[in-house]
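Service request form, structural biology core

Requester: graduate student, group of Dr. S.
Request type: structure prediction, single chain
Budget code: on file
Notes: please return the result as structure tokens.

Sequence provided:
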Amino acid sequence: MSEATFFGADAVIKVLESEQVDVIFGFPGAAVIPIYDRLYHAEAEGRIHHVLTRHEQGAVHAADGYARATGKVGVCIATSGPGAMNLITGIATAYMDSVPLVALTGQVRTGIIGKDAFQEADTFGVTMPITKHNYLVKDAGRLAEVLREAFYIARTGRPGPVLVDIPVDLTNTPCEWHEDGHKQIPGYNPPGKGDPEALRQAAELISKAERPVLYVGGGVIASGASDLVRQLAEKASLYTVHTLMAKGAFPEDHELSMGMPGMHGTAYATHAMHHAGLIISVGARFDDRVTGDPSKFAPEAEVIHIDIDPAEINKVRRARVGIVGDAREVLEELLPLVKPRRPGEWEAHLKEWRADHPLSYNADPEDGVSPQYVIEQLWEATKGEAVVCTEVGQHQMWAAQYYRCRYPRQFISSGGLGTMGYGFPAAIGAQIGCPDRTVVDIAGDGSIQMCIQELATAVIQKLPVKIVILNNGYLGMVRQWQDLFYGKRYSGVDLSGNPDFVKLAEAYSAAGFLVTDKAQVRPTLDKAMQITDRPCLIDVHTPPEENVFPMIPAGKTFEDMMETAPVGV
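Core staff response, request fulfilled:
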């Protein structure tokens, strides 16, 4: 075979380049060595940067964070069997939050698939329910076509992860290269504009509404519709609430912003949703963290539901008007049809609720530093401009409550799957995608330890990610539930044995700071912001039994909301 022969592995790299992939996160193994061999040349020539993570889960979360921060398709790669299986949590995370991702996995040779070969797993079968689409390629001649389809599917319509499983022998097989773009995919027709009659009905309902609330979801960010949402809110005087996934889709310091409703949302946003007469939902899916008991959620409200996925319309809450389409294209059509509304009695009530039910906390606890205070200081130290990633737990909810976002793609968190260990590798991806932004991972002492080995990745890549650990010595959210609903029987949540996080950071050649006193918070944050050549970890000791309020217990209703700790707790 001549040196000029084109192989399957060459097709993989060539498609990545044609899809304008400039970074790929991965961990090699035997079944992807031919692809890595071509990556060697692509990286040496500055065409694709490969980021070697310390675990495949770190790779997929980093690709996910890169995608959320930039709006591009994130790409990760792992070998067959255990490598592919270590991507599963990250793929499911991206699927639940509709993140455009292409995962490349190696597979054993085609001739031994299904024979329990070394490092063989049914990656195609395992990932079928957690991907938007997946492929097991069996013909080297189709590799390029399949990969092009994968990128197209991942980024169009409702975005999502697509997996391409590639047997190793195909990457070593000679094949022809065709410059063709992707072909039309039968049966795949992403929606665009909404139905004209439904748009007319929606505009009429909005224009005449007496108690409207605009409910914004992550689909607004995915479609780039934030500016249009703001125009709609201002034109029709619509007070606006957002889901966790939509933080930043509507500026939280805007007069019409009511924050996040639901389980740990603001009390006034939850009041607004419960008493609404009309909910205009754009790119949101009525998640159970927002609705609680769906049968008692917003009992008097009619619903206009705008979503790109027809399966979401009427799935949880029946819509008076359902509009299937891309949020941006739908709003472009809807806006001219909506007549300006004048604020009235309803808007006065919303202002009263916001004034009467503010977020509050004990700023001077006896044992540690208030986590809410830390986040407020972080907001000030970063002037509210940072890209904030979170792990999952109490700190995630405090970050959602106290770090007010102004821009889309500013808040990156695992909302649907609730994946502990997500935030730090996602922050690595976000920092690579946004090298000029300050990127912060707000973490708990439990969740940070799930992917803390990625400190090595961040150090090698010279990434100035800030990691703020709100360290209470517990798996805090589980402890909170045991505190409130299980008689304080703290089972399996004590994190005694935590490492010295500062020394651990320093062991990886990152910077580390310890904060045990309120007076240390702001100076330490300011000092951390000056570090630009390596990650910086700040270990903040917080009260062991601080809880997140407001809280609506899972499956309960507006009437069950606890704005503060119940008496006796």
